[in-house]
Specification:
This protein has 422 residues and is an alpha+beta fold. 36% of the residues lie in helices and 27% in strands. The chain is built from eleven helices and 17 strands. The termini are far apart.
Length: 422
């Protein structure tokens, strides 16, 4: 409902343009002195030597002082903590004299009751018409909320660092449980292995093992589970123990991988299928020709690298092998090879060949199978320990270019002692 004032102005009951104009007029009538005294920040003016000449009510209330306690009696530095006074004398004061202004400096003021008030301080030097300094004006902002926020942020960061360290220890410990503590000693063989961790924050899915079966027979495997983290670790553990159990039941390499495929295919049906690449081998001494005979079955795994005693090297193909855990009845390829004295067989996961060769330059090319074959040809003939040492050095040259865990397992048939001496 509208009404008309005596002077003809139209207003609105319950407040309107008239009330708003009155409020605006009240703001204009606010005195400069009141604005100074009750500003949302602290003000003080000091002589050039720091003696307090003027201070507003806001700052007095914050610190719990009476005006007569400070004006003409204390210097600005007297309100600072010991550390603050040292900073004021060595940095704040000299910079203010040189620059004429200094802003946003974090300090702590001592209140009358001994408590500390975190503040942000801005000071300017007022000069006269002749350019000579007259006094120092200082604005003080209450930083208690900011300090509390920073303290909470620091606490949260420390807790996050502790949690990250704990998770790294957990991941490293879990990773160790998925690998054999030590490779078994196979008479007549030199065996060495290495596991390169790409990230300490996540558990990888690579695995390997070498273990005895029937008398004079040993089983070995090396594989790579799709993915990382706890889910991959669960599959790794299942695959590792399934392979060992299946090898006891039927050590034929193709049968071992078929059993693993059945387990994974049944266990991880549905929306989150899990699979792996794996190579399984059966080692037996070759009584007639010397050395060892190894039969390998591959389920989609990169081919092993065979480095001969005569200095040649080539991949040992197992064509047609399909991923383990994807299809109900995958085709699994096998191949048998004779390892003569001086020969070395190297099994690896694809973290090696898929590493970036120059990560520091913004990516770089993948290392690739061709370069890996050249590496083997330059290395042959070699031993298991020398092979693993060379692979470790190679991975180190990639640095952060190795973005996936890498497992390598080298098997070497030593030459007779007389041949080695020659």
């Amino acid at each position: 409902m509208c009404k008309t004032d005596d002077d003809g102005r139209e207003g609105r009951e319950g407040g309107g343009p008239v009330d708003e104009q009155a409020q605006f007029s009240a703001l204009l009538e606010d005195s400069a002195e009141d604005l100074y005294e009750h500003a949302p920040c602290g003000y003080l003016s000091t002589q050039l030597d720091g003696l307090i000449a003027k201070v507003n009510t806001t700052l007095l209330d914050w610190l719990g002082y009476q005006r007569e306690d400070l004006v003409g009696r204390k210097h600005f530095s007297d309100l600072l903590t010991v550390g603050g006074r040292l900073y004021h004398e060595t940095h704040f004061g000299p910079l203010l004299r040189m620059q004429g202004e200094i802003s946003g400096i974090a300090l702590e003021l001592k209140a009358a009751d001994g408590s500390r008030l975190p503040v942000l301080v801005t000071s300017t030097v007022k000069t006269g018409s002749d350019g000579q300094p007259l006094l120092i004006r200082t604005t003080v902002f209450d930083a208690r909320d900011r300090r509390a926020y920073e303290t909470e942020l620091l606490r949260a960061r420390r807790e996050a660092d502790v949690e990250r360290d704990r998770l790294q220890v957990l991941a490293t410990t879990l990773q160790k449980t998925l690998l054999p503590p030590a490779l078994v000693d196979v008479p007549g063989l030199d065996v060495s292995a290495y596991y390169h961790i790409a990230s300490v924050d996540e558990v990888g899915g690579d695995f390997y093992d070498l273990f005895p079966l029937a008398a004079g027979t040993w089983g070995l495997f090396l594989g790579d589970v799709c993915g990382k983290g706890a889910a991959a670790a669960a599959v790794t553990s299942l695959a590792r123990y399934t392979l060992r159990a299946a090898a006891v039941y039927d050590p034929a390499p193709a049968a071992v991988l078929a059993n693993l495929n059945t387990v994974l295919n049944h266990e991880y049906q549905g929306t989150e299928p899990r699979f792996c690449t794996v190579v399984f081998g059966l080692l037996t001494p070759d009584e007639d020709g010397g050395g060892f005979r190894i039969t390998l079955a591959s389920g989609g795994h990169p081919p092993a690298l065979l480095m001969r005693a005569d200095g040649t090297a080539d991949f040992l193909p197992t064509p047609g092998g399909q991923l383990i855990g994807v299809l109900p009845d995958p085709h699994i390829a096998t191949t048998t090879v004779h390892l003569a004295p001086g020969d070395t067989l190297l099994l690896h996961t694809d973290g090696l060949t898929e590493a970036h060769t120059n990560a520091a330059a913004g990516g770089g090319e993948r290392y690739g199978d061709d370069a890996f074959l050249d590496f083997g040809r330059a290395l042959a003939p070699t031993t298991a320990s020398d092979t693993i040492r060379a692979v470790r050095d190679l991975l180190d040259t990639f640095g952060t270019g190795v973005d996936d865990d890498t497992a390598v397992l080298a098997i070497h048939v030593p030459r007779p002692t007389s041949d080695e001496q020659q």
